[in-house]
Amino acid sequence: MKKNKWNSYEGHIDLAIEAKESFPGDGGEINGVVLEEETIETIDMHITTVEIINEEGKKAMKKPIGTYITLESPWLLYGTEESNKQCSEALTKVLQKLLNPNWKKMLVVGLGNKDLTVDALGPSSMALLEIHPLGQEDKKHLCSIAPGVMAQTGMETAEIILGVVKETKPDCVVVIDALAARSLHRLGTTIQITDTGIEPGSGVGNHRLGLNKETLNVPVIAIGVPTVVGAATIACDTLDALVHVLKAEATTSEIGSTLESFQPEEKHQLLKSLLSPQVRNLFVAPKDMDDMVHSLSSIISEAINLLL
Amino acid sequence: MKKNKWNSYEGHIDLAIEAKESFPGDGGEINGVVLEEETIETIDMHITTVEIINEEGKKAMKKPIGTYITLESPWLLYGTEESNKQCSEALTKVLQKLLNPNWKKMLVVGLGNKDLTVDALGPSSMALLEIHPLGQEDKKHLCSIAPGVMAQTGMETAEIILGVVKETKPDCVVVIDALAARSLHRLGTTIQITDTGIEPGSGVGNHRLGLNKETLNVPVIAIGVPTVVGAATIACDTLDALVHVLKAEATTSEIGSTLESFQPEEKHQLLKSLLSPQVRNLFVAPKDMDDMVHSLSSIISEAINLLL
Amino acid sequence: MKKNKWNSYEGHIDLAIEAKESFPGDGGEINGVVLEEETIETIDMHITTVEIINEEGKKAMKKPIGTYITLESPWLLYGTEESNKQCSEALTKVLQKLLNPNWKKMLVVGLGNKDLTVDALGPSSMALLEIHPLGQEDKKHLCSIAPGVMAQTGMETAEIILGVVKETKPDCVVVIDALAARSLHRLGTTIQITDTGIEPGSGVGNHRLGLNKETLNVPVIAIGVPTVVGAATIACDTLDALVHVLKAEATTSEIGSTLESFQPEEKHQLLKSLLSPQVRNLFVAPKDMDDMVHSLSSIISEAINLLL
Amino acid sequence: MKKNKWNSYEGHIDLAIEAKESFPGDGGEINGVVLEEETIETIDMHITTVEIINEEGKKAMKKPIGTYITLESPWLLYGTEESNKQCSEALTKVLQKLLNPNWKKMLVVGLGNKDLTVDALGPSSMALLEIHPLGQEDKKHLCSIAPGVMAQTGMETAEIILGVVKETKPDCVVVIDALAARSLHRLGTTIQITDTGIEPGSGVGNHRLGLNKETLNVPVIAIGVPTVVGAATIACDTLDALVHVLKAEATTSEIGSTLESFQPEEKHQLLKSLLSPQVRNLFVAPKDMDDMVHSLSSIISEAINLLL
Predict the structure, then answer these.
(1) Beta bridge partners of residue C224, listed in sequence order
(2) Is the pLDDT of residue D95 over 50?
(3) CB A278 within 8 A of CB A45
């Protein structure tokens, strides 16, 4: 997929793979960033591991040091019973790679707003988890919570989670959240798993505080699926398409070339002028988004059930 | 609000008031279309009545002959208990104007998908209605149904409604639906009431068949609220803003002027090239859309409760 | 299971198998009633087919002429993934026996109130069905509706269904409903399938009108699961237990014997005195009823999905 | 209301007013227990304040030292807009009496299972609360959480609450829960407010751990509404009615008198024999329980909204 040239000039990027793509040459050779790719043919799944290994990589990617694994497959969105099973298994394997295999008690947190379809991935996944309350010896203990959003609770979500973690003492936390992507084609077709947890400013609901090993004092793995793109993406895509279309016609090719030749600074400035504050508060989502959220929360909850 | 120049070249328009605005000079003097305006100061409500009175008006507006009343107020979206009450009363009055006062049995239909927040206005309103089952003499009888969408039922929604209407024989039908707007500022701040029912191709869910006096054999009043804009709107808005920004700078004003001077045909052609089929399947909505749907379905259901 | 002696004197019985059990000798030799039994060992499932073949049987059983098949298994309530699959397959087979194999368009109706856990079996099953809208040649067409209850719609549920059937013309109808049982041990462990449809007065919600081949003009198969018992059952069970306990003690055995020796007429009269009208409006249900409804609606919807 | 003679021999009683009624003479003169009564005529509301003031009262009532205020009114169950408003105001007044008026930050906790209608009072009330997130100076801060039940989260609910309280530091906690009553006539017509919090073993969901000032380290007020009665109540009611009916007939009056003359020990023993363990896991509820829960959660949430 061609990099979106205008998208490069915006703020926070939820997906590490999109942060990488925003570099010239797709960011293949950034210092401090190690890349690994793999494919599962039966489900057309492309697995990309981006490892940010030092301060240099952190600065370039504007993301914390850690591992970011992306599963990409069209089957995530429109699956069969069989493909869903394989997708869940692939996700289970990735989780096992990032988890300490000796974990005894896991807290799964479904972030987001169950009343807002695009933000409901976390709570929907919780509803499908098979809880394992403590009791039997030698058994792993799985618990879960969907804390809601600040507009519902009046509390910072991170505070609720921190309180629950301190009191119930899980030895690992898995957080599930809906993300914003830059590219339309990622909606519902990508899962990002990272051992860096949730960053401030990320997610459909724009989390104010982070959820990670530093804040919660236990390892935190985040599973994120892009369910929206910012409305700004449509504006950027329009500009890219405009340049392309204008250049293709003899009578307008000069205008197209002029627009294309703008310097990064100029592009950034232009975009800021084009996008009203109102637009920043909008999101773009597909019309069958309820199916998308249902399908992906099934795959994710099943993957966690398979850990046991 | 300035008319969006690029928006004029697209297909179906849900709101009559936007169809009117797409004409030069805001369409104030279209033959066959009568306009009337009114204001309720306490809630900053602007009430516009568009009457399409003959074939000429119908052709110009691309909408059926009939009455289209639009309530516009910022209080619809962010109201207090008191403003909500006044908004409901204003809507009740409009409904009384369009209804035969001697109605005995009303069927209220909540169209849309309860699992998709932007399309949930109809089902949410149904949940708040006060049903009046038949029984007592001389009392009006209010019944309601939320038939779901084709992806849930496997049936055309219009067929379900038609079957229920034939069997239960209401003497009027009120249909509530979420609409798509052209302008972002209309999201949640506008209610359209029309005695022409639901048009084919309208609504967030794109109804395939119409629901009106011809198809149901009883008077049909539709109450619609725009909860989304098409993603194409963002593209059009971007082009308008681009022209504006380019013209304002000395170095780029010429490019701006050239883009602006495109003929309608050229603009239409350009937009078609810019918008991928994928974009047409996307919608744009605000992040606090669940509150918007909750607030508006309360106002609408309360307005209907007040009819009794 | 011992027949409940006091329960015999009450009104409508939803389950044919309980109607049969209310006869002396468990009703094995009622004229006009044919009995057949079968077992699936792997899931401890007991399948009983009660056929009412003529007016004599109809009068004795107080149920319409037709076939009543009961699946009984503890695994229905507390199943594993594997047992659920086998339960669904057993149900699919029964449905295939009662359905004309050449059906082209099936309407599945989920009766009941989704907001009342004990009555939510029908709507819950609908949410899990895989709808097959018409379109492709030579494919069976599966559609569904959850019409709600009269308190929600203000309409007779039977009228809504009749309207939809007349308009959409399915060639068979499958109705799913929550039933009331006489015996506590049946809650969630029994599925009744019958080709006589839904009787007036049956179900948790006490349907006023019947849904059957006579009223809908197409074959109607009803799938029912007892999710409640009437509060009267607890009263009857208490009297039976009382007799038993009193007889066991030397000092009270005489009282026990006297109570036991009451004539049917006397027992009936006594029960009528004991049960206040309020009690008739109560139901008894287990505390984990939400799990029960979830498990059984999964098994039922999966069984219907398997038909395709 | 006549005291239920057989009901006296059972275990935990959720309502203080029922504990009091289980004493001879309705417990009017128990040492260590102070009683006060009041009436609001317009809504037929009877307000009873039971104060347990010392160890003697605690031992007699089997309830912690503290204040228990009961609001009883038929309008709680079947109200008009106006009566609901008055019921909310009465509840607000009681809360103000028990709360320190200088509270700055209140956490409202909705206990129970939103998927089980009879246990959904707490979560339903949360959905209707008007949250006041911190921000503006000098404003009271209202936050809320519906933590779910152990079967959903795998964690003790009390642990979740304790964690959240420790982290977010409210200066008072209000807990809302569905209770079990002894008398059918209390279902939906009674609200109990107490400053002793939630007792272990109470509630429809049988809370294992208490939530009170000792465990949470801040004042805890509990608002409880009986939505079920135990199935055992029906058995006890049946026995009481049986004695009454048998005594009334000349031929059976002797049996009736003998049953009545059983000593407390004998009655207790008999009940234990009659009630199977299965019965203890059942509850009895009215068929229109969804309306009951909806109505009461509106009254309660509105009463809390009125505090601000």
Answers:
(1) C177, C192
(2) yes
(3) no
